Amino acid sequence: MECRPYDPSTDAAFFPGGQPGGPLWYPQVVAWTLLMQGVPVLAFGFRPLWEGVAFGWMETTADAQCYKMAIARQLDRMRPVLHQFRRVETLVYADNLPAQRLNEWLGFQFCCRKVHYGPQGETMLEYVWLKEGVADAR
Fold first, then answer.
1. Residue 15 predicted with pLDDT over 60
2. N or C: which end of the chain has fewer CB within 10 A?
3. Are 46 and 73 within 8 A, CB to CB?
4. Nearest alpha carbon to residue 74 among 37, 35, 109
5. 50 - beta bridge partners?
6. Do the beta carbons of residue 45 and residue 30 sit within 8 Å?
7. Residue 95 class from Cβ within 10 Å (0-12 exposed, 13-18 middle, 19+ buried)?
8. What's the Cα-to-Cα distance from 75 to each of 50, 121, 137, rounded to whole Å?
9. pLDDT band at 129 (very low <50, low <70, confident <90, very high)
10. What is the 3-state secondary structure (H, E, C) of the chain?
11. Computed from CA positions of residues 132, 82, 112, 109, in that sequence, does the dihedral angle turn out positive or negative?
């Protein structure tokens, strides 16, 4: 698995969120693409909200499920990136159990349930990662 800086000019076409208005459409300060055999399977990054606080995003292709362990190993190597921030927030569809497990595995805490929040009114779950020494998110 290869990990390289996210390039919206080439990578956005592989992900639904790369379309205008999607989460990958906006400039990112910290973002990467994971590739398997030269083909993007996952893009992720952090959009700073203000000093020390960021929104974490991740988008996968359908093929990402085939490479779960390789993706997990690569994301584990990227953990130090979180320490650029004191707080990182993510949103996950309430019915997306793999994404919930991934957030928890990465050390994010469940924060709250947001009803009628998603693009089509879906229920979303907010997860928060706090740098060690920062008060609990709940």
1. yes
2. C
3. no
4. 35
5. 53
6. yes
7. exposed
8. 24, 30, 22
9. very high
10. CEEEECCHHHHHHHCHHHCCCCCCCCCCCEEEEEEECCEEEEEEEEEEEECCEEEEEEEECHHHHHHHHHHHHHHHHCHHHHHHCCEEEEEEECCCHHHHHHHHHCCCEEEEEECCCCCCCCCEEEEEEECCCCCCCC
11. negative
Q: Residues 6 or more apart from 19 whose CB is under 8 A from it? A: 12, 25
Which position has the token pair 């805490």? 109
Question: Beta strand pairing status for 87-93 and 109-114?
Answer: unpaired
Q: Which span out of 1-15, 68-82, 109-123 was modeled with the highest average pLDDT?
A: 109-123
Structure tokens, 124: 């979303």
Cβ 62 vs Cβ 8: under 8 Å = no
CB 17 within 8 A of CB 24: yes
**pLDDT tens digits, one per residue of 21-42:** 555 555 556 788 888 888 888 8
